[in-house]
Specification:
Layout (H helix, E strand, L loop, with lengths): L1 H32 L5 H27 L4 H23 L9 H10 L1
């Protein structure tokens, strides 16, 4: 009985292995279709993300230092960060916004 089970499981394992190979070939073909950024573009994008994150972290830290509870400071920081980006997008367009521009409109947004 045990020998029959081994014989039956061998074709199942072979089919499973073929499916994995076929799947990986498909993944490899799809990855070839992706246009990856060059080193310079990736560096610029990474700097923008890091700088924006630092600005947001500074906003949250500032709110926390003023006595706001951590959760509410994080929520308010993200909200104000989004409002600042919206305000800049209205004034400058999406292509011209830099992370250093966000703190310049914060006083106006907070006054409102």
């Amino acid at each position: 009985m045990a020998e029959e089970e081994k014989k039956d499981s061998a074709p199942k394992k072979a089919k499973k292995g073929k499916k994995k190979v076929s799947f990986m070939k498909g993944v490899k073909q799809e990855f070839k279709k992706i246009t990856w950024p060059d080193k310079e573009a990736l560096t610029k994008q990474s700097i923008a993300v890091v700088t924006t994150s630092v600005v947001l972290a500074g906003m949250i830290a500032s709110l926390t230092a003023q006595g706001t509870e951590t959760f509410y400071a994080a929520a308010l920081g993200v909200y104000l960060h989004g409002l600042a980006a919206d305000k800049l997008a209205q004034n400058m367009g999406l292509a011209g916004i830099l992370p250093r521009d966000i703190p310049t409109v914060l006083p106006e947004i907070i006054r409102q």
